Amino acid sequence: MKSKKIQNGAPGPLGGRRKEFIREMKRNKGLYLMCVPALVVLVMFCYIPFAGTWMAFTDFNVVDGIFGSKFVGLDNFKYFFSKSSMGWRVTYNTLFINFFGIILGLIVPISIAVFFNEVRSKIFKKLTQSFMFFPYFLSWVVVGAIIYGFFSTDVGVINNMLRSMGLETVKWYAEPKYWKGIIIIASMWKWSGYSSIIYMAAMANFDGSLYEAAEVDGASKLQRILYLTVPMLKPTAVVLTLMSIGRIFYGDFGMIYGIVGNNPVLIDAVTVIDTYVYQTMRTLGFSYATAIGLFQSVMGLILVTVANRMAKKYNDGEGLF
Amino acid sequence: MRKSKLFSDHLVTWFAYLFIGLFGLLCLYPLVLTLSVSLSSEHEIVMHGYSALPQKFTLNTYIYIFANSGMRILKSYGVTIFVTAAGTIGAMIITSMIAFALSIQSLKYRNIIAFLCNFTIVFSAGLIPWYVVCVNYYGLKNSILALILPSVFSVWNMFLMRTYFSSISPSLYEAAKIDGASYLLIYWRIAIPLSKTAVLTVGLMYALQYWNDWWNALIFINNKDLFPLQYYLYTILSNVNAISSGRVPSGAAAGIALPSETVKMAVTVITIGPIIFLYPFVQKYFVQGIMTGAVKE
């Protein structure tokens, strides 16, 4: 197909192509016009900002502007990974929270989908699914309020429970060490209902005759789950996991800020790259913050490309995007 | 042998009920807790802590909030409703148009356009350049447009819609074209009416996104009159005293000291109220959206 096109434009490849371009634009004018508003939004908010990444290589000041400020090469990046900065710390936090998020995000939704399938009562199914899906509809600020209800030192549910069991209470909001865990569990709580629906969608397409055959052969329910359902869910799980791995360098700003907010005691323990960029933008300047953001984007691009390639290999040529 | 197998099957079933039931409760419990605390008396909460049943049922907290910050909350509601409505309509028009165009097989450059969309998912300039451009060139600081424009087009939702549009038979379009209809007319008269579910699903996803958004406000908005509901809640949670800085309290609520615990939960309830109310009606569309998104074309 492609080589044929070039032959057609043989007399002057460029001129031919331009003619073809104009002809195509004329023929489908309406359709291309329909793409324009979306493309304008993308150019405004995604493509034009790329010019601003130049700030990462300068010592930006407002007077000289983006391209007039002094060029400093990779100094901003060097500082990010020097001992005096939080660079390694925030990278570690991001990867840690996302890694355990991915693990829980596999185990819990798959368990929900598998066991949900074993439930026969329609009313029970309807009710529980409504409950489990609901957290997805809440913003992280609301989740933050709920977490406060659980972990508040004086009135929180958890401390109440500890008290009634005669155990010592914990000043949760003064102990940074718990918060990575709390955030990972909160994320699991918010997303499990949502993710389990994806697995249920996959299960709806399973071949029922396989299960009948297994039943005739005397396989128990547990065996059917372990040797039929779970292996058949694997492709979905692999694709979803690769997608998460592609985004492992991206923290969830809303989640961290909604739950921990500006709490100075806790924020260092859970700061991820995204929130760190926001903090440094106000303290250490735009150039440095831009450099961190660029580092994150480049790492993200590399990982997404790798994940996409792996997905293609696994999925017979169909990638994530 | 046969009997023990039956027994193990029963065990699996019982465990399934237990597991699903417990997880369902785990998701429901925090909401019940929030609601009941907001309806409790502050004194009891301070004495006994949060509990799933209201303690000394009272509406005092809500009365206090509306007496002190009623206008503030109404304004925030107004901002959120406006942003949600305008944003969702704008987003739907923009998204459905490009999704329709990219679903037409004969569109020659559709892969290039799709790539331009996809690329923004995998690579971005980062927060700071985006912020600088928005503030310095588009003048979005303290503008209500800052709450709408940055999220008016989601590539994910676009591909979701395209999947729906692609399932419409092209022969329908061909017939209309022979009758002299333009693509715009085909889009409006054929594609959209045939994809009502998709329009509803994606529209609701946008609406939820706008309703729950507070990060754009955190970045762009200092003006209290433009605080959306979620961001208002965020400020209340980080500084509960903000609630009493409204106008001078009057009437019944004047004598009440700031009920700082119950206020937090009451504002939370006020924020999620419409979602709770609409949830039973919209849930199935979201489920549908997720399922379509999961089954890739």
From TrEMBL, chain A:
<feature type="transmembrane region" description="Helical">
    <location>
        <begin position="225"/>
        <end position="250"/>
    </location>
</feature>
<protein>
    <submittedName>
        <fullName>Multiple sugar transport system permease protein</fullName>
    </submittedName>
</protein>
<dbReference type="InterPro" id="IPR000515">
    <property type="entry name" value="MetI-like"/>
</dbReference>
<dbReference type="GO" id="GO:0005886">
    <property type="term" value="C:plasma membrane"/>
</dbReference>
<feature type="domain" description="ABC transmembrane type-1">
    <location>
        <begin position="91"/>
        <end position="307"/>
    </location>
</feature>
<feature type="transmembrane region" description="Helical">
    <location>
        <begin position="31"/>
        <end position="50"/>
    </location>
</feature>
<feature type="transmembrane region" description="Helical">
    <location>
        <begin position="286"/>
        <end position="307"/>
    </location>
</feature>
<dbReference type="Pfam" id="PF00528">
    <property type="entry name" value="BPD_transp_1"/>
</dbReference>
<feature type="transmembrane region" description="Helical">
    <location>
        <begin position="137"/>
        <end position="158"/>
    </location>
</feature>
<keyword id="KW-1003">Cell membrane</keyword>
<feature type="transmembrane region" description="Helical">
    <location>
        <begin position="95"/>
        <end position="116"/>
    </location>
</feature>
<keyword id="KW-0813">Transport</keyword>
<comment type="similarity">
    <text>Belongs to the binding-protein-dependent transport system permease family.</text>
</comment>
<dbReference type="InterPro" id="IPR035906">
    <property type="entry name" value="MetI-like_sf"/>
</dbReference>
<dbReference type="InterPro" id="IPR051393">
    <property type="entry name" value="ABC_transporter_permease"/>
</dbReference>
<keyword id="KW-0762">Sugar transport</keyword>
<keyword id="KW-0472">Membrane</keyword>
<keyword id="KW-0812">Transmembrane</keyword>
<feature type="transmembrane region" description="Helical">
    <location>
        <begin position="178"/>
        <end position="204"/>
    </location>
</feature>
<dbReference type="GO" id="GO:0055085">
    <property type="term" value="P:transmembrane transport"/>
</dbReference>
<keyword id="KW-1133">Transmembrane helix</keyword>
Automatic annotation (TrEMBL), chain B:
<keyword id="KW-0472">Membrane</keyword>
<dbReference type="Pfam" id="PF00528">
    <property type="entry name" value="BPD_transp_1"/>
</dbReference>
<feature type="transmembrane region" description="Helical">
    <location>
        <begin position="12"/>
        <end position="32"/>
    </location>
</feature>
<keyword id="KW-0812">Transmembrane</keyword>
<comment type="similarity">
    <text>Belongs to the binding-protein-dependent transport system permease family.</text>
</comment>
<feature type="transmembrane region" description="Helical">
    <location>
        <begin position="265"/>
        <end position="282"/>
    </location>
</feature>
<feature type="transmembrane region" description="Helical">
    <location>
        <begin position="77"/>
        <end position="100"/>
    </location>
</feature>
<feature type="transmembrane region" description="Helical">
    <location>
        <begin position="186"/>
        <end position="208"/>
    </location>
</feature>
<feature type="transmembrane region" description="Helical">
    <location>
        <begin position="144"/>
        <end position="165"/>
    </location>
</feature>
<keyword id="KW-0813">Transport</keyword>
<feature type="transmembrane region" description="Helical">
    <location>
        <begin position="112"/>
        <end position="132"/>
    </location>
</feature>
<dbReference type="InterPro" id="IPR035906">
    <property type="entry name" value="MetI-like_sf"/>
</dbReference>
<protein>
    <submittedName>
        <fullName>Putative aldouronate transport system permease protein</fullName>
    </submittedName>
</protein>
<feature type="domain" description="ABC transmembrane type-1">
    <location>
        <begin position="77"/>
        <end position="271"/>
    </location>
</feature>
<dbReference type="GO" id="GO:0005886">
    <property type="term" value="C:plasma membrane"/>
</dbReference>
<keyword id="KW-1133">Transmembrane helix</keyword>
<keyword id="KW-1003">Cell membrane</keyword>
<dbReference type="InterPro" id="IPR000515">
    <property type="entry name" value="MetI-like"/>
</dbReference>
<dbReference type="GO" id="GO:0055085">
    <property type="term" value="P:transmembrane transport"/>
</dbReference>
